[in-house]
Amino acid sequence: MRTGRPMTRQGRVFVRVAAFFVLLVSLGGGLGLAVEGIEGRAALRGGTLGSLAPTDRTCGKESCTWIGTFTSDDGSVTAPDVELRDAVDVRRGDPMPARIDGVRLAEDAGAAYSADYGWLGPVVKGSALAVVGLAITTGLVLMLRRQRAARAPRYA
Asked: What pTM value is reported for the model?
């Protein structure tokens, strides 16, 4: 059994806020990643087939993503400002292609997915992030309960 000073009120409040923050970030980020993967899988299975004409790129720390106008193969669907999600790493200096064929548009028309998009990775990463966040939060809550039990008066 651990012996030491009991946690102060401010310490307990800090641990509660930290537990809530960890839960919020892990569930929000984890579910966001998982939803992206599931959306990609749905688009690859039944989304509108067409091509993306890149007009811009959005860059992060390591790579960039093409943004452009999606046009279906039969010309019946056109969607501007669609983000392409694929397995190709695009760098800042890479030349912009005129058109990328064989992409499928998601239902919300905010993203298009190429055939090489790996939907399983985001689902697994998102699920793992959510589970780890739940485990950390559970550990913090159990720590608070243990502290409360140690503070409670004991009657003989």
From this structure: 0.71
